[in-house]
Amino acid sequence: MATVVTRHKVGDINKWIKGQQDRLDIFRTAISSLKAFQDVDDPNSVALVIEVTNMELFNKILNDPKTQMAKDKHTVIDPITVSMEIKF
Q1: CA distances from 79 to 62, 65, 76 (A)
Q2: Fewest CB atoms within 10 Å of the CB: 13, 23, 75, 86?
Q3: Rounded to two decimals, what is the model's pTM?
Q4: Fold of 2-84
């Protein structure tokens, strides 16, 4: 399992928040948990901390054209930055 942080902007934070169940449904086969955060200084900037169980599948889902439809619906603005945990 890998801990991943993603960051991106959204056009409408309220639409994005309403899409939480869609995100869980889309990524359910590749993750075990997802926590969402909103930047204090920019309400349209969000970060997600995700426990990924299958990184290859996660990346495939993230880049799938079907996922783009959900991103559009939830006003996600590319790029999505994906950061991996550094293991010391």
Answers
A1: 12, 15, 9
A2: 86
A3: 0.91
A4: Alpha-Beta Plaits (3.30.70)
